[in-house]
Amino acid sequence: MSGTLSVVFALLLIRWLDRRRDNRPSASRGKSLIEGPEPIIFLFRGNRLVDATGPARNLLGMMGEDPADLKRLIAWLEPRFPELSHRWPDLAAQGRIEVVGMGGTGIARLSLLAEDLAQGTTRVTITDPNAEDAGILVDSLTLLAMEEELELLRSSMNQTPMLAWRQNSGGEVTWANAAYMIRAEEITRGEVSWPLPRLIDLPSLPLGSARLTRRTQLMTGTSVLWFDCHAHRSGDQTMYFALPADAAVRAERGLREFVQTLTKTFADLPTGLAIFDRERNLQLFNPALIDLTGLSAGFLTARPTLFDFLDKLRDARMVPEPKDYRSWRQQMNNLETAAATGRHVETWSLPGGRTYRVTGRPHPDGAVAFLLEDITSEISLTRKFRADLSLGALVLDGIDDGLVVFGANGQFLLSNDAYVQLWGNKSCNMTDAIQSWRGQIEAGAGFAALLDRLADRDGQGRSDGAMAAPNGGLLSWSVRALSGGRQLVRFRQPDRPGDTTAMSNGNDEDSARQQKAVGAK
Asked: Is the pTM of the predicted complex or chain greater than 0.70?
């Protein structure tokens, strides 16, 4: 019995081993002279890629898009399958859709099969029926993507306005784009032969250097073309790119001419000019700066920094002398900061008696300009004018009569101390002054005549008269027209014995009444 069981077990073991050997793929069975191309299959769950075959991943890599996004894949497939955008919404209802389209270059007919596997899973299969019996392993869609990319790069290089060419180690041109060919035909008058001529003679790259940048020119008949050239070495070949730089050269030439024009203009200005760049180095100055500061031209042309410039001025005693160096340094820091953030003006009273006005102006690019003006004569004139005004005020205050001047529009211009003592205060305008007078005296014909004369700009009315004084006595007045529509009003009190000037000039009721009162006394 045990022997029979042993035989049965041995037979079962041999049969199991035979089946396992038959099911195991052999090397000879897996190989064939012609193998079918591996299909392009994408498996998505929702919009995210969960699996893909090798050719499918290669295709996504050629697309240069996010390989895990179904929407991006559909957007890339729509130009190749025009019906896809109309058929895709029916996938959930039908379970599967099949669309036939053309490749990007129109040389291959493609087939797309989309299947809804439920639970949000979608399988997309792309096949090329023409490649099934081709006898070679070709991933047609990957090849098409590569051809499209090659065509895009070729068309881009031919449409670019820059010159592009490649040279070997011997300096021969081995490749050139369309712009280079067109320029070569212009220069050689259509007689272009191989190898192509070198339009721009650039030096070879130095050893150990993989890049070179240089601006050069190209003569084409009677015109000169400028290019910014860039060279990149790749193995034993060097790739050259020449970007048109005519606009940049014209702009730089115009800028230089503009700076020269400004320099010539600044040379005739009496104001000293110093312009510092964003690094606070002196970039531009005019001869007036040398005359005003006494600094040497050699020092200024060396482009000193702002603080070296100020230190030199301090050594030459051309800045206000501070109490100590630390406070002066802080003052200069404040000057630089204020000039960089907004317009800043300072007045420097120098030890020699001269006075300078220093103005700092910022520029949009971070630069700052300083202007030095000698305002010594202006300050002297201002001081003399102020002294004359002060002397005039003292003279007016020394007059016993009250004087007040009104402007053409009635504004209050000036008065003396006698007027303030008489009426008590200074008004802002003629209207306020009249209200103050009316509140301190008894109105009568003389006061009314004064108001009529002040209201009469032509000066046709009475120019003098008499009225009651604030202290109850007699007060004479006179109005005199000045230039510019201004009016001078003068008040006089007969405070001296026998002084009857005011009464002799009055011919109104107030004058007569006051004369009787004085005679009775």
From this structure: no
